[in-house]
Every structure is written in C-alpha cells, then in structure tokens.
Amino acid sequence: MEQSKSINIINSSFLVGMPLLALISVIFYSLQYGISWVEPVIFVAFYLACGLSITAGYHRLFSHRTHKAAWPMRLFYALFGAAAFQNSAIKWCSDHRRHHLKTDQEEDPYTVKNGFMWAHMGWVMVDQGEEIVEHVDDLQEDKILAWQDRNIFLIGFLVGIVMPGIVGLLAIGGIHGFLGGLIYGGFLRVVIVHHATFLINSAAHTWGTQPYSTANTSRDSPILSFLTFGEGYHNFHHTFQADYRNGHKWYHWDPSKWWIKVASWFGMTKDLHRIPKKSIETQRMKTAFENNTKPSEVSNEMQIKLKQCLQQMRKGFTDLMKRRDDYKAAKLERKNESKEAWKLTRGEHKARIKQCKVRIAQARLEFKHIMQSLKIRDPAAVIAA
Q1: What are the b/e assignments for 248-287, b being 16+ CB within 10 Å?
Q2: Which backbone phi and psi does 211 adopt, to 5 degrees?
Q3: What's residue 371's pLDDT?
Q4: How far apart are CA 313 and CA 360, in angstroms?
Q5: DSSP notation for 75-133
Q6: How many Å apart are CA 5 and CA 131, to the nearest integer?
Q7: Is 224 within 8 Å of 244 (Cβ atoms)?
C-alpha cells in the first residue's frame, strides 16, 4: 500500500520558520543592543550541551549501545537532547536503527537515494503515513527516556528556550539579557545543531571516501567531522556501528569520543566498546583491494595470496594483543622477581612483541606488492596506518 506523503505543517513551519526567526532576531538584537562576550559564550555552552546530547547520547549511547552511562548522564542527554528539538530519544533512535537496518532501501526513512534535500530535511517535513516506532524495546524500558518521550515538547521548551533566556538574564540583566540568551542560546543554536545533524544524513552519504566498505552510500569526511562533533567518519561508523568512536585514530577530530572517554574517568560511562585494530585494518585492506580490482582481473593464485595475506594480518594482530597482555601481566608480578630475572623476562616479552610486529609488517608489504602487481596507483596510501 502506498503511503500518503502530505506536508507536515508543524515540522515544516518549524524548520523553515526557525532560521528566519533566528536571522531576524540576531540582526535586531545586534542593532539594538550590540554583542558582548556573554552571548557567544551562552551560544557555545548550549551548542555543546545539545550537540553532544545528540551525537554521544541519542546516537552512540541510545541508538547503538556502544557504551553504558550512569543515570545522571542519561538524564543530561534526555534534557538537552529534547532542547535540540529533534524529537524524543525513543523516536529518534527508532528512525536511526531502521536507517542502519535498511540503509539506502525504501524502508530507510532518510535515504539519500531519494535526493540530497530529502535526506537532509525533506523527510522530516513530510507525513509518511502512520508513525513507526520499532526496534526500541530496550529504550522504552528506560524510565528516564520514557519520561522524556511523554513530555518531549515541554522539556524542549523549558530547557531549549526558557533556560538560555534565564541564563542571559542572570549574566547580563534585564530584558536585554533575557533576549540575548534566548536568541543566541535558543533560536540560533537550534538552527545550527539541526543542520549539523542533517548534514550527516545528506552530505555524509554523498561526499567523501569509502575506505572500509562500499556496501552503502556512507562516506568518511574529516571536514564534516569538524562541524558535527566527529560524526563525519561515517563510512567507518556504518561498517563498525558498535564502536563508541567514529574517528578511530587518536588524531581524528571526534569530540564525542573524547567526551565519552573523559566521562569514563569519573564513572559516568563504562564498557566503552572498541573494534579491534586487526578487524579495522583487515577490512580496510579488503575494501582497498575490492575497490581497485575486478574479479576477472585477479588470478586464482593472486586471490590465494591475498587471502593468506589477510589471514597473516589477522593472526599477527591477535598474537600481538596477546603478547602485550602477557607483558602487562608480567609487569604486575615483577615484585616477585629479582632485578636480573626481570631484565631477562622483560627482554623475552619485548622480543615476542617485536616478532609479531615483524610478521604484521611482512603481511602489509605483501599486500603492497599485490597492489603493485595489479598496477594499483599509490598502494602505499591504500594501506597507510
């Protein structure tokens, strides 16, 4: 049965009206009162609180269960996630889980196959028939999220509109201060956070690289990561959804992973799930090979070599992790050994670790040779760490 797709008046009015309201309000306020350092600070504070509540809260915690969070952290996400005006966590996660289950298919609520603007915000502005809420039984059992879902508009209004106004009133004083907080911490911030989120559904499925998988339209874009609290490494995310990181390397710009990690130092988060490096590296090599060759171009002998190369990589990383764990355990028992005995033991452990690294390096070199034999341009870049 074909679903009706009439315009959703409330959503459309909000998404079109809020940017206009923010623009007019900022111009009026600037001309009437000028801008001090306080208004930008209020904007940044609410931008961070609401933005991280979507990326670290709605997305990585609630949608993908990449880690666990204490109730104060979940309450924080519920309050400021509501203030982002992107629906309740339960509804948001229902849509998002369906997006991952049916990426690029008709059932994907914001598939880019229906066009860039559809994926960006069009899907929110249209009624697509009866609202679907599924695959979220675990979230509906969370009392905080159930409470948020029942009171989403009231919480959003109080935290997203009234609260920044009150902060401005306290910081600056008078109607001037209230308006400053309301406009910068409320109206303008809502628009910026909205479109930062929307860019992941649209731009991150349109522009960028696909180093980990070409099974769907997801792309990695470091530029988008700077605008979206690290969500721009989207091809990695679609390939390894259970990882609490989107930018898996230490230098990848991913404030959401840093927020989650720092919170773990204070007991606010725990059980942070990381995909093993061996799995990431193997998938990257496999995708690089598939992206640059056709089955008809690869001989059986070369396919066997590639399979052996990937197996050696996988085994090498497994052995390396085990050797490092053994070394850590030995260091804990060091007090039971003499200085000379420990020196010998340490040398043995380091030698084993070095052997594992050598085997991994050999497998990487073999992969590079395979790519060169197939005349793949710049194979070194393909397997860069």
Answers
A1: beeebbbbbbebbeebbeeebbeebbebeebebbbbbbbb
A2: -75, -20
A3: 66
A4: 6
A5: HHHHHHHHHTTS--HHHHHHHHHHHHHTTTSTT-TT-GGG-HHIIIIIHHHB--SSPP-
A6: 12
A7: no
Query: Taken in order 55, 59, 62, 68, is the CA torsion positive or negative?
Result: negative
Domain ranges (residues) in the chain: 9-270, 277-382
List the one residue out of 283, 273, 237 whose CA is nearest residue 99: 237
> How many residues does the structure list for the chain?
385
What's the CA gap between 244 and 53, in Å, rounded? 14
Contacts of 187 (CB under 8 A, 6+ apart): 18, 21, 22, 25, 26
**What's this model's pTM, rounded to 2 decimal places?**
0.79
List the structure tokens of 48: 């961070």
Measured CA to CA, the distance from residue 358 to residue 319 in angstroms comes to 12
Please report, for residues 8, 202, 278, the alpha-carbon distance to residue 232 in angstroms, rounded to integers and kept in the order given. Answer: 29, 11, 22
189-202 and 9-33 helices, crossing angle to 10°? 130
Phi, psi of 4 (to 5 degrees): -70, 145
With 0-12 / 13-18 / 19 or more C-beta atoms within 10 angstroms meaning exposed / middle / buried, residue 164 is buried
The amino acid occupying position 48 is: L
pLDDT digits (tens, 9 = 90+) for 247-304: 999 999 999 999 999 999 999 999 999 998 878 887 887 787 776 655 545 567 666 7
pLDDT value, residue 227? 93
Residue with tokens 């969070």: 69
CA distance 96 to 59: 8
Rounded CA separation 288/338 (Å) = 49
> What tokens appear for 283 in the block?
């998938």
pLDDT digits (tens, 9 = 90+) for 45-102: 999 999 999 999 999 999 999 999 999 999 999 999 999 999 999 999 999 999 999 9
